[in-house]
Each structure stands twice: as C-alpha cells, then as structure tokens.
Design goal:
Length: 1453
C-alpha cells in the first residue's frame, strides 16, 4: 500500500537509524543518473548471459504464445520488416540461444531446433476439438511457432528430416490441418513428410482416415470451410502428381518410390470406400457425407495448372478402371436379369455424378476405349459397367454413336471368330442403352431387326453363324425378361428356308418359357417401350397406350400409323380384341370432332373397323349422352377453383359421387360418376399409370416398415377417405345388401391401376401400425374395402410381404389377415373391431348367398382370429349357449354414431348362421391355430391379468381342445398329442419371423419376449401329467417307449436335411439349440426315461444318447464335452430315476457303464464339471441312501483325484478305463499355467500306452477348439505345448499314435473316441496333424511304415479343406525354435501351412523305405489332381531305384 515501509530498504537509512517514508525515498531518486552507453551495454550482455544459461528452449518458443507477456513478443519482433535494433537483437538472441544449447548438448543446432519445434507442434495438437481441424486458439499458437521455424530455416539452422522423423513419433495425435500449415508455410513439404515416414502402411492408413474426416466437412456450414476446401484440393493435387507422374518426366528419376506408393494407395482406398458406401450405407450417414465431399475432387478444376495433363489423364483413367473392376461378384446371368435396375434414373445420384466427372475429363472417345479395354482384359463389376454406359449415352450425346460403333465391332468380332464374350458384351450394352429411351438409342426391337432381320445381318454368312446365334439366344432364355423373347419372336432373324428348323426350335423354346412365366405373346403392344420399369403390360392398359400413341401420330401425319396397319393384318387377334375396344370406348361425342373421332372415321373408311363393332360404338355413345346427369348437361356442374389441377378435379368427382349416395333418384348415374372418377384418377396418375401399367406376377411390399411417397399417399388417402365416407353415407340410408354396386365399381378402379401396391402399403400402415387409433367409420370402411378386395381376388396379383410370413406370396385377403396382430391390449381390441365389421358387412352384403360363400371374400384366418379374440375377451362366449335364430347380422349396431363393438361381436358370435359356418373345416379354430395365436401375446401388455390368462389357458386346453376329436382340430383326449403340438409350435415360433427378436440367453425367452413363458408353463404341467400317466399305464415287462419330445426333435431335424450351405447349417444349429433349451425347461427325467417302479432295470437313455452323438456333440465346448447345464440336467434325471428304483446303485452303475460305449461324452463332461457336480451328487446320494457313491461315480471321482495328484510323488495309479483317466488328466493339465505343463506331465513315461494315446486325442480336440474359437492366442499356444509334450513322450516310448488320425467305428480299442469328436473337429484333423509338424521326430517319420501313408492322406485332406473354405481362419503357430528364441507365437495362414506340409512330404518321400509305398496307389486314386507334383513323386518313388532324389522341390504356392 502507498506509504508503507519497504522491508529492508528503509532500515538504518539515517544517522539516527530511523525508517524513511515512501515519499522520502522517492525524493532521493528524482535526479536521473547520467547516460552511460558502456554501462548499458554491459547490463544487456549480462542479461543475455543469464538467459542463455538458465533457459528452457521449449518455453522460449512458447513465450511468443503467452498473451500476457507484452514486454517480450519474439514472434512480433522476428516477423516485423523494420530494421530496428530490438528486432535484430531478438532474432540474434534466438539463434545464439540455440547455438549455445546445441554446443552444451553436443548435437547439431539444426537437429536441436527441429526436435524443439516438433515438440511444440505436438503440444499444439494436444486435446483436439476436431479430428482433423485446429481450433482458433491452436491455430494462433501454431502460427507463432511457424514464424520462428521460418526464421531458423532462413539461417540454415533447422533440419527438415529430423523434424519429420520427430513429428511422426506422435502420429496418432497429429492433426491434418497442422501438417497442412507446415506445408503451406514452406516449413516442410507434404512430400518430405510422406517420404520420411518409416511405415508406408501406417502412413497410408493415417492419411486415408484423415481424408475421410476432412471430406465430411465439405459442404458443412463451418467457419473453416475455405480452409477445408483448400486442404482437400492441395492434398489431392499432391497425391495425383506424385502417384501418377509419367515415367518420361525427368523428375521421375529422383521421385521417391514410397511417396508414389502411398499416393496411389490412398486414392484407391478413398475410391473403394466411396463405392462401398454407395452400395450399402443409408444416405444420411457421415460416410455418405464424406463420399459426397470426396467426389468433388474428381474435377479438372481441382487440379488445373497444378498437375501435369498426362498425370491427370492417367489418374482419371485409373479411376475409371477401378470403378469398373470394383468387386466383380456378379455373373453375366445376374447382369441379364438385373440390368433394368441399373438405368441412369435408378443409379445413385452420387455415382452418376462420379461417372460424369471422370467421363468429362477423359472425353467420350477415350472413355469408350477404356471401357472396351477393361471388358476385354479384366473381370468387371457388371452393375458399374452398365450404369456407366447409361451415364455415357445419356449425358454425352456424342458418345451415342461411339457406343453404336463399339457394338458393331463387338458383333462383327463375335460372328467372325465365334467369340461368345463379345456377343454377351454387345447384347448387354445394347439392352442397357435402350433402357434410356429412343431419344438416346434405338429401341431393342429396331436394333434387333436391323442386325438380324435382313440378308446383310451378322448371322447370314453360313450355317455355323446361324447355329452360333440361335445357340446364344437359347442360352439367354432362362435368364432374360419376357419382353426380349417377345421381340425375338415377333421380329425373328432372317433364316434361309433350309435352316428354318433352327428358328422354329428357338421360338418353341421361347414360347415354352413365356408360358411358364404366364406371359402371353399378345402382351407386346404396337409401340413397345423397353425403358419402362415393368416387364409385361396388361393387355387393356397396353391397348390404351397404343391408342394414345396412334392418335398422336395420326395428328402429326394425318395418316394411319404403319404399326396399326401391320397389326390389322399380322396381329389380328390383338387388334380386334384389345386395340379396337380401347379405341372405341363409349363416350359422349364432342360437337366438333376431335382427333380421336377423326382417327376412327379414317379407319372405318379404310375398312379397318368391322361394321358391327362400329355400329355398337355409335349406339353406346348415344346411350352415354342420354344417361349423362342433367345438371352436367345443363351446365350446372360446379368445378372447383383449381379446375386445371388433376387432383382438384378428382376431389370434385369424389365429392359428387358421395352426394349421389344419399339420393335414391341418382342411382342410375352412379356408374357414370364412377367412370368420371376413373378418368380423373388417370389424369392424376399421369406417367405413373403409363409406366406402371404392366402386369406383375407378384407385388413386392416392404411391410417393416411400409413407406409411401408423399404424392402417392395423398392420392391413396383421398381415395380411402372417399370410400369410407361413401360407405357411411350409403349405410345410413340403406343396408349394404340394398346398396348400388358402387363399392364394387370403386374397388375395381383401384385394382385396375398401378396404385394397388400403394393402396396395400397404406392399408399396411393403417391396420398394422395405426389400427388402435382409427375411428369407427375408418374401421368400417377399411373392413368393407377388405371384403371387396377379396371379392376381386381373381384379378389381383399375389403379394410378397417379405419377412412377415414364411410363405413366398399371399393372395390379397390372406395378406390383409396377416396385418391384424393379437399381441397387446390395443391390437386385440382393434382386431376384434375389424373382424366384427368385416364379417358382419360380408354376411349382410351377400346375405342371399350361403354362409360358406364368405370364403370367396374373406380369409379363413380372419374368421379364426375373430373366434380367438371373442373367446379370449368375453368369458360369456366360452360357455355353451343356444344360438340366436335371427335373420339379421349386427351391422346396424356398428355404423351408428356410438358403435357398440362388444354387443356386435357377441351378437355375431351367437348368430346361428355364423355358428353353422364354424362347422366348416377351413373356418374352425383348431388347437394348433390357438397355440399359434396365443404365442403372439405379450403378457406385459395383455388385456387379461395373469390369473385371467391362466384360467383362459386351462379352459382352452383342458375343456375345449383336449376332449375335442382330432377331426375337429382337437386332441382327442390324447395328452401326448397336445404336448407334441405345443412343442412343435414353440419351435416354429422361435424359428419364424413372428418372434422378431431372438434371445441369446440360455433361457427360453423366445422372440426376446416373455409371452411364451405362459405357454411353456402349460407344457411343463402337461409333461409332468404325461409322465405320471405313462408310468402308471406301462405294463410290467415292457420296455418304455421313447419320449414324445425326442420324436418331435427327430422329425424336425430330419426335415432339415444336412446341406453344405451356410444358411441351412445355421438353421440346423438354431434348431438344435432350441431342442436343448426345451430339454432344460422340462423335467430331467425326460433325458433318462421312466423305468417301472421297483424294477432294477437301466433307464432308457437311447434317445438322449442319439441326440448327443448326432447333434449336441457338434455344439460342445472344448471339443469333447457338453455344456454344464445339460450335463447337470442329465445327472439330476439319473438321480431321480435311481430314487424310484429298487436298487439305485445298480441303476446308476448300469447307466454310466452304458455311457462308456454308447455316449462317452457324458462322462467326459462330468469330469470337466466335476468340481461343481460332485458336491450335488454326494449330498443327494448320502441324504437318500446313507451310503457311498455307486462304483461308476466313484470311478469318476478317482479319475479326477488321479489327475489332480498326477505330478506329486504320492500319485495313485490311473484307474480304468484308461481314456477316462486321460480325459481327467487333460482337463487338469489345461488348468495349469503354461510354464508348469512340462513339469506336470513329467510322469507320462510311466503311464500305460492306452492312456497316452487317449491323452493325445483329447489334446488334439482341445487344439482344434482353440483354433476355431480364435479368442485367445495364448490358449492356442497352450494347447500346442500340451500336444507337443504328449507327442514327444509317445515317440520316446516308441508308441504309435498314427491311428488317431485314421479312427473308425470298427477299432476295438479307440473307436469309441469318435463319439467324442465333433464333425468339424474330425474334418480338421489334417490341420492339427501339420500344426505339429515341427515336433515330429525324424527317426519316427522314417521308422514307422504307416507314417508316410498317414502324412500323405492328411496332406490331401488339408488341400481339400482349403478348397472347401474351411481353413479361412488365420492360424497362429508356435514352433520349438521360436520358443527357444523367446518368441511367443508365429502368425501364419493356411497357404503357409500347406506349403510347409508339401516341403515336408517332398523331403520325406526319398527317405522312406520301399515298403512304405505298398498301398500308395489306392490312396492316390482320385486324388492325383490335388497336387500333381506330390502324386508324381510318390508314383515315381514306387518304381525308382534308391538313388532317386527329390531334393529339388518345385514351387506350387
């Protein structure tokens, strides 16, 4: 504070020793000392020395970054251009500081400054806010450091190479913008940075990742958008100039090869990433944003002036080649079938943009040349090739002639040299070009006629060319679209009469194919358009299109079009039956004849219209004029303000139709008004009607979730709303059976247009996803619409709903039924409403017909769902009651303002006619149907409480279906049949798409929901009852029958025939896992059967043994054991059976003894889980019998104790059988640490040979399990070590182990071990054999006569595994030499393993004695082509003298 004394400064200042005040101190310094230049210079030098010897170089660089340090701003001092002494001194200070520091450290000053600056850059990039961009604060810090670096560079005090090397040490934290700043400020160039990186692959990966992040910012609204674009442009320029520099450039001689490799790799990766993203990812992802940004670099403007023209051309040519050859997985047959989906309009817009950018730079001529070259020399991606052709002909008019010339060349070459590839390419290119319309390329029909329809065609040279052509066309028949076959038939190649049989044979084949596809030859219109998305047009719709186009041509020429004249002569059936009716459709003739009327009169004068047909047309037109509504003829009809808008006209027409519903005097004009609605709808659909008017054999719908375009949804909602309003208006006046046929006419309009898929999609949205929110009028209207759609089912295509149902296609009524779900409270209530409305409307509308006729309009599934919902929701419906003999159905209860759905549903249920209908077999709700629907219920959202649901289940199973005869869908009193249905449906539900989500938990929570738990509880209750019934009913002395559960499993697994396809294999795995889960949820006695009480017989375990040996062993863990849950379940079942037996110990011993020969995997599983299993077994046995464990259980206990004490001196001998002791020893060894394995197994030399051989078997199974799991390399190396120790022990004792690789069921000693090996492990034994190659003893390989045969057999099987794709997993190997060197593992692959095996064999063959080749001919039979070199060496060795040498090993891989 002012006036306070300064410590130490004011003490003893005067003679009296008094303190001086602050004012007095200041007063003594008023006089300035004289200026002394020498003193000032000495003071500055002292300060510099002080700083030099007490400085931190990094802090010195960061000093310029501190905003608070205003007295010393070295960056400003160095950066200024003035010649002030202060600036010079700052620069001099920095240089001298680096020199002094470098001198003390003994390093060059350039190296020191580079390291310090690299560290500074690394710290700037720490804690980034963006993956590639600097924050404003980071940019400011880096700019300050760059000034110092530039200053040091100017004075030759900065090492670029050292800086690059130091910078890459922190590569992961380095930001791309920082690297760009170094390049743009000329501190170090990108080329130097790329060249200095020690790892080319890491450099490529880093640059590729950062380019992706950078491209994501292109087009994004961010402050640094200019910087992002400049960075991307500069980086691409560098990559192109370095990666595609011409070799003729003299600079190429000194160009670093590493830079070129990195540049090309990065550009290729970015393009491949872009193509993969466009093929797979949705358009809203960041990957799509990155692709969009990356495509902008393919522009001549990006590299203009910065990249040599030759390099730019080379880059774009390489890019086009990569696009065309990217992932060539599609076959020619696929291209023929799918190319219509690859047109310009259907190709992703980013991909067409990429094509255009590349093609613009290359030019059409060079692009076509590149296309031709790639197709001739490489495998191509046909989708990219053909979509590129479409882009080429659409966007580059000058390329159209080039493509025509190219096709001409291809066809000429094909017929000159009978080159099939040229023929295929030519046809694919022509068809692709014709997809873009006649303004781009002549139609396919015109091209085909021009190419083959005259004597100058390509095929007219000889008979051989004719045969070549028709052979090619015949080969196309199974794959190509019907339109092309129709063109070939209607415009056939010109063939000499003596070879006419070739043509007739092809036409016969094509007609047969068209008949199989249910396509008529008459469906080809007069003016075909192959660019339309559909394949075959409906005849009526095609005729309407032909009429429109013919009138258009007539307006332009005033003459009858030539196609019409030709059709009147050569295609008379189509002309008379379809074209003329479409042309002569009745209408009100205009007062002034229009083009249509003039065209008709011209045809009449040319005698092209039969008189009878013309007269009928005139009469129909007169009738139409007479029946026209009066208000319309008098001009009173009011058009809306948007009269010129098609949708407004359609809305007005629908409003007029609704007005006619309530006026009984207007019934006569309803049909005419529906026709007006149809015409207005045609105008609204516009081109959509023309393009989509083709008949489709099947409608593809995306049900999960359904989507509609906005325009289509607007039209569909308008039509559906109008239908519902019309129904309510008409029903308020008269009942449905007395209404006019407006509903049928209205629905036929919908069915006659391509709007039907959109209508079905909208119904899916409404019924499946929005049903509970619909109002009563909507429910009634949609239910009536469903009835009339069912009435028109014969004229509707089938529907493919995708994953909704297992069937490939459904009729429309069945499809609508699948949209009604019964999962939750809301969906149950909506299903009840909709079914009640639909059945009531149908019964009322068609009351004059018998009730069974409902099947013509409604799906039987809908009636079954109605029964299910009514019985579930209304307990009063479950009680038997007399049906109501009423003559009406409860329709009136529904369309009133307050619809009483419950009363309507119960009235319908009690209606006598409906009860009679339910007696029909197809409408009866069977027990199986009930289970299927009940499985859908979600208890947490159920309308019934837990108690109510349990009561409903008890009533349905035991009161309704259990006593009902099987002919009526019941169980006929057979409890086993009831259980069988439950099990089958549970498994079907789990496998079907109805379960949606599949739980990975071991518990049976099917579909990820608990809705099945209640049904499973019913199954458990019924299984216990069944077990009690069978136990009491089994006659004495009779062996118990197999359990029904195993019969169901066996039947289902037999239906899933074993196949090589992955899909079938996965389906079978899922089925087996489901079987296991069901077994675990049922009583354990199911596994071991139920012997008669008091009888000391062995339980019947045959079915479970068969399931283990055939299926469960393929899903075991560690190769030779079952999972803990099923193992414990079996022993619980065994204990429960023993408790009911007269001699429990005898039953246990007999069962486990039987396991040794029939199902040894149960015993090995018990040994593995013995630590958890033993306490339970001992406790329960002693509690029940007060005695020790049975002998066979003690044997397992002893085997486990033997394995635990194996390495101790007090170890007991191995109990019998030897393979059980070997299994126990193997499991104990696996629990040890790797370094303790050798010590633990040191006593193997004293054990029996049988134990050693079995131990090697278990070790091999564990080795293969580790190989397949690939979870832990250490586990695999541990398995290798165990196998090696056992193998070396066997070889020391000269015990043969080769039989393990050639086991058969007939082997008395080791044949039972086959039951312990999963199928996949057995197939992979060759892999295990050669994985232990480095541990084979050289003496044993020659000493044992069978070794060569086994080695050759394993080698050929290993090759077959590779061919079959079962060695695709990378195999880690461990060898003895690497272990000695301190290495832990060696990463290899199957090819390396096969190469080592091959070298081993070729070295072994000359060393083996002659007797080793005695049976080699039999072994080589049929395998000689696998490896000809090895096969020939074996054959020659059989016949060669002992001096034969195969030391020269040829290279196969």
């Amino acid at each position: 504070m002012p006036g306070s004394p300064v410590p130490g400064a004011a003490m003893g200042g005067g003679p009296r020793g008094l303190r001086k005040t602050w004012t007095e101190l200041l007063a003594g310094r008023v006089k300035k000392p004289k200026y002394d230049p020498e003193r000032e210079q000495k003071l500055k030098d002292s300060a510099l020395r002080l700083l030099r010897y007490h400085q931190n170089m990094h802090d010195l660089l960061l000093e310029v970054e501190e905003p608070r340090c205003k007295t010393v701003r070295l960056g400003e001092l160095i950066g200024c251009d003035s010649a002030e002494a202060s600036s010079d001194r700052s620069a001099s200070f920095i240089r001298s500081a680096f020199r002094d520091q470098a001198s003390r450290l003994g390093v060059p000053v350039g190296v020191l400054s580079a390291r310090v600056f690299a560290r500074s850059v690394q710290q700037v990039c720490m804690e980034p806010s963006h993956p590639v961009l600097l924050s404003p604060e980071q940019s400011k810090k880096l700019s300050s450091s760059l000034v110092i670096a530039q200053h040091l560079l100017a004075h030759n005090m900065f090492s670029r190479l050292t800086f690059c090397q130091e910078l890459w040490k922190a590569q992961n934290s380095l930001l791309l913008e920082a690297v760009w700043c170094l390049h743009s400020h000329s501190v170090v160039s990108l080329q130097e940075l790329l060249q200095s990186h020690p790892d080319t692959e890491a450099m490529t990966t880093w640059l590729f990742k950062n380019l992706r992040f950078l491209c994501e910012q292109i087009g994004a609204s961010c402050p640094s958008s200019d910087t992002v674009e400049a960075m991307l442009s500069g980086l691409v320029q560098l990559l192109i100039s370095r990666g595609f520099q011409e070799s003729s450039d003299p600079r190429r001689l000194v160009e670093p090869e590493k830079t070129a490799q990195v540049a090309t790799d990065v550009l290729q990766r970015m393009l491949a990433f872009s193509l993969d993203t466009l093929d797979a990812a949705p358009q809203t992802t960041l990957d799509h944003q990155a692709v969009s940004g990356w495509i902008t670099v393919y522009s001549g403007h990006t590299c203009c002036g910065m990249v040599a023209e030759d390099s730019l051309k080379s880059f774009f040519s390489h890019t086009l080649t990569q696009i065309l050859t990217h992932k060539p997985v599609l076959k020619v047959s696929d291209a023929i079938q799918m190319q219509k989906e690859w047109s310009f309009a259907k190709t992703h817009h980013l991909l067409t943009d990429l094509y255009c950018r590349v093609l613009v730079t290359l030019g059409p001529e060079e692009s076509v040349g590149r296309l031709q070259e790639v197709l001739e020399t490489q495998e191509v991606n046909w989708q990219h090739v053909l979509s590129c052709v479409s882009t080429l002909v659409v966007c580059f008019p000058e390329a159209q002639q080039l493509v025509k010339d190219w096709v001409t060349t291809l066809m000429a070459r094909a017929f000159e040299s009978y080159h099939l590839d040229s023929m295929v390419t030519g046809f694919l290119i022509v068809r692709q070009a014709t997809l873009e319309g006649p303004y781009v390329f002549p139609s396919y029909a015109d091209w085909f006629k021009e190419s083959f329809g005259s004597s100058h065609g390509y095929h007219s040279c000889s008979k051989k060319t004719l045969v070549f052509l028709f052979k090619f066309l015949s080969d196309l028949v199974p794959w190509e679209a019907p339109r092309y076959m129709q063109v070939h038939i209607f415009h056939p190649p010109l063939v000499p009469s003596k070879y006419h049989s070739l043509l007739t044979d092809y036409i016969s084949l094509a007609k047969t194919r068209l008949a199989d596809l249910k396509v008529s030859l008459e469906n080809v219109g007069l003016y075909e358009d192959l660019s339309s998305p559909g394949d075959i047009a409906e005849r009526e719709s095609q005729a309407v299109q032909d009429v429109k186009k013919a009138i258009m041509v007539f307006e332009q020429t005033g003459k009858i079009p030539m196609p019409v004249l030709e059709a009147s002569i050569f295609r008379r059936p189509y002309y008379v039956s379809h074209f003329l009716p479409a042309l002569l459709a009745p209408r009100v003739l205009p007062e002034v004849p229009d083009s249509r009327a003039a065209f008709i009169e011209t045809l009449k004068r040319a005698d092209k219209i039969p008189s009878s047909l013309y007269d009928a047309y005139r009469r129909a037109c007169a009738t139409a004029k007479e029946t026209q509504p009066k208000d319309a003829t008098s001009g009173q009809r009011t058009e809306p303000d948007c009269a010129d808008q098609p949708l407004g006209l359609l809305t007005a027409a629908l409003e007029e139709l609704r007005a006619l519903m309530t006026d009984p005097t207007q019934y006569s004009v309803i049909s005419a008004q529906v026709a007006v609605v149809s015409e207005r709808l045609n105008a609204v659909l516009g081109h959509s009607n023309d393009d989509g008017s083709h008949r489709k054999l099947k409608i593809q719908l995306s049900v999960l979730p359904p989507t509609l375009q906005r325009q289509d949804q607007g039209v569909v909602d308008l039509l559906l709303t109008a239908f519902c309003q019309n129904l309510m208006a008409a029903s308020s006046f008269v009942s449905p059976e007395r209404q006019s046929p407006w509903a049928v006419l209205f629905v036929r309009i919908l069915c006659g247009h391509t709007l039907l898929p959109a209508i079905l999609t909208r119904l899916c949205q409404l019924l499946c996803h929005q049903g509970p929110s619909l109002s009563a009028p909507h429910v009634l209207g949609l239910a009536a619409l469903a009835v009339h759609l069912g009435e028109c089912r014969s004229m509707l295509p089938e529907v493919d709903p995708g994953v909704l149902v297992p069937a490939s296609s459904l009729c429309v009524p069945d499809f609508l039924n699948t949209l009604l779900t019964c999962r939750t409270r809301d969906s149950l209530l909506f299903c009840m409403k909709f079914c009640t409305a639909a059945i009531s409307y149908c019964a009322c509308k068609f009351s004059a017909q018998p009730p069974a006729s409902l099947h013509n309009c409604l799906s039987p599934g809908l009636i079954k769902k109605f029964q299910f919902v009514v019985l579930r929701l209304f307990p009063e419906a479950r009680a038997p009651c007399a049906p109501e003999h009423t003559a009406y159905v409860p329709w009136r209860l529904l369309y009133l303002p307050t619809a009483d759905w419950q009363s309507a549903a119960l009235s319908l249920w009690r209606w006598n006619a409906f009860q009679e209908l339910l007696k029909e077999k197809e409408f009866y709700l069977t027990y199986r149907d009930w289970v299927q629907l009940e499985l859908e219920i979600q208890p947490e959202a159920d309308i019934l409480s837990d108690t109510e649901r349990h009561d409903f289940h008890q009533w349905a199973i035991y009161e309704r279906y259990f006593p009902a005869p099987s002919a009526l869908g019941g169980c006929g009193g057979d409890l086993e049949a009831a259980c069988t249905v439950l099990v089958s449906e549970l498994m079907d539900f789990h496998q079907s798409s109805r379960s949606y989500k599949h739980s990975e938990d071991s518990d049976l929570v099917l579909g990820g929901r608990t809705g099945n738990e209640d049904i499973l509880s019913r199954l458990q209750e019924m299984a216990v009852d069944l077990e009690l019934d069978q136990g009491s009913a089994e006659p004495h002395g009779c062996s118990p029958q197999s359990h029904f559960l195993f019969r169901v499993f066996r039947r289902r697994l037999q239906a899933l025939a074993r196949a090589d396809s992955m899909a079938t294999s996965l389906r079978r795995q899922q089925e087996v896992l489901m079987c296991k889960r069901l077994l675990l949820r049922l009583p354990p006695s199911v596994l071991v059967g139920s012997p008669q009480a008091g009888q000391p017989v062995s339980p019947n375990c045959e079915e479970f043994f068969n399931l283990v040996n055939s299926e469960l062993r393929n899903f075991c863990c560690h190769g030779s054991v079952l999972t803990y849950d099923i193992t414990t379940h079996f022993f619980r079942g065994l204990l429960s059976v023993c408790l009911r037996s007269q001699d429990p110990a005898l039953v246990a011993n007999q069962t486990l003894t039987e396991c040794q020969t029939k199902c040894p995997m149960i015993l090995t599983s018990a040994l593995l889980w013995w630590s958890s299993l033993e306490p339970v077994l001992c406790s329960r046995w002693k509690k029940c019998y007060q005695s020790t464990l049975p002998r066979e259980l003690q044997r397992l206990q002893e085997a486990r104790e033997f394995a635990s004490n194996f390495s101790s001196d007090s170890a007991s001998p191995a109990p019998s059988p030897a393979w059980i002791s070997a299994a126990a020893l193997h499991f104990a060894t696996r629990e040890l640490r790797k370094e303790n394995v050798a010590a633990h197994l040191k006593r193997l030399d004293c054990e029996r040979e049988e134990l050693l051989t079995a131990l090697l078997f278990f070790s091999l199974m564990d080795l293969l399990s580790s190989y397949l799991s690939q979870r832990d390399t250490a586990e695999y190396l541990m398995a290798v070590d165990i196998c090696a120790e056992v193998l070396m022990c066997l070889e020391r004792r000269k015990v043969s182990w080769l039989t393990l690789f050639q086991l058969t069921d007939t082997d008395a000693k080791l044949g039972h071990l086959l039951h312990l090996a999963p199928d996949q492990h057995s197939r992979l034994l060759p892999l295990a054999f050669y994985s232990l190659l480095s541990f084979f003893s050289e003496g044993a390989t020659v000493r044992e006569e069978a070794f060569l045969r086994v080695a050759v057999d394993m080698y050929f099987k290993l090759l077959q595994l590779f061919v079959d794709g079962e060695t695709r997993i990378v195999l880690p190997q461990a060898s003895r030499s690497l272990k000695l060197q301190g290495h832990s593992e060696l990463q290899g692959n199957p090819i390396q393993l096969m190469t080592k095996a091959r070298v081993f064999l070729l070295q072994l063959i000359p060393q083996c004695p002659t007797q080793c080749f005695s049976n080699m001919t039999e072994l080589l039979a049929g395998r000689g082509d696998c490896d000809p070199e090895v096969s020939n060496a074996l054959r020659q060795r059989q016949q060669a003298d002992p001096s034969f040498d195969l030391s020269q090993e040829p290279q196969l891989f």
